[in-house]
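User: Let's play a game. I give you a shape written as tokens, and you guess the letters that built it. Ready? Here's round one.
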């Protein structure tokens, strides 16, 4: 997914949609929706789709990788329709396409058994999402490199408000690491990979050229970003 084009939005099968108003708490100083706002919308509409389909108790979904292609950022006061559809199914993972005006996204999610907390088979999902997924296959492995030795690093701190119900940092909160990037261009392409969960432990934001990493104090990479156009 890193170097490939975002796949087409499914033309058949289940599509779920919700409307979002870009409010004052969703934007940066320039009036554009923040990247963490867009990431939060992606997971919110995905969760709403799972609830609407009645399969929220079968598995827990953990995001592994998300790619955003932004031709233009939604702006303050704009109401946008957010549409989502399953674009691929594997044995224990699924790919989800989401779109809104000016923004295309694709995310890889890993299914976790709620009882064992181990990767779960998702055969039951095929009856709901199989038509839109078709026979598309995706890779579930990680593709981002580790930080180079000459990268720069600054302290990074997550807040208690960033934790979810599992007491791990919510995936949308990682995108706050890009909040201080100067003059994000339009168009923009950004990809994040989530490697291990974070809590409130000390961390560093590591930077090198177009890549960023959130690294725990012990050197473990929690998440990594690649920016481009």
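Assistant: Ready! My guess for every position:
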């Amino acid at each position: 997914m890193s170097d490939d084009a975002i796949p087409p939005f499914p033309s058949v099968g289940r599509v779920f949609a919700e409307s979002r108003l870009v409010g004052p708490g969703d934007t940066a100083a320039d009036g554009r929706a923040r990247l963490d706002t867009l990431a939060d919308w992606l997971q919110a509409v995905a969760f709403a789709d799972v609830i609407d389909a009645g399969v929220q108790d079968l598995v827990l979904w953990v995001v592994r990788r998300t790619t955003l292609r932004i031709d233009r950022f939604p702006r303050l006061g704009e109401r946008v329709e957010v549409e989502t559809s399953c674009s691929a199914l594997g044995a224990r993972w699924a790919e989800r396409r989401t779109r809104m005006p000016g923004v295309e996204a694709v995310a890889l999610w890993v299914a976790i058994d709620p009882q064992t907390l181990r990767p779960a088979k998702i055969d039951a999902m095929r009856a709901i999402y199989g038509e839109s997924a078709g026979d598309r296959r995706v890779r579930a492995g990680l593709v981002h490199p580790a930080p180079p030795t000459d990268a720069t690093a600054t302290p990074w701190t997550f807040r208690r408000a960033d934790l979810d119900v599992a007491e791990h940092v919510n995936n949308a909160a990682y995108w706050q690491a890009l909040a201080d990037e100067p003059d994000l261009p339009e168009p923009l392409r950004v990809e994040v990979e989530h490697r291990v969960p974070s809590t409130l432990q000390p961390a560093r934001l590591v930077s090198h050229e177009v890549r960023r990493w959130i690294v725990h104090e012990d050197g473990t990479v929690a998440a990594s970003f690649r920016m481009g156009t």
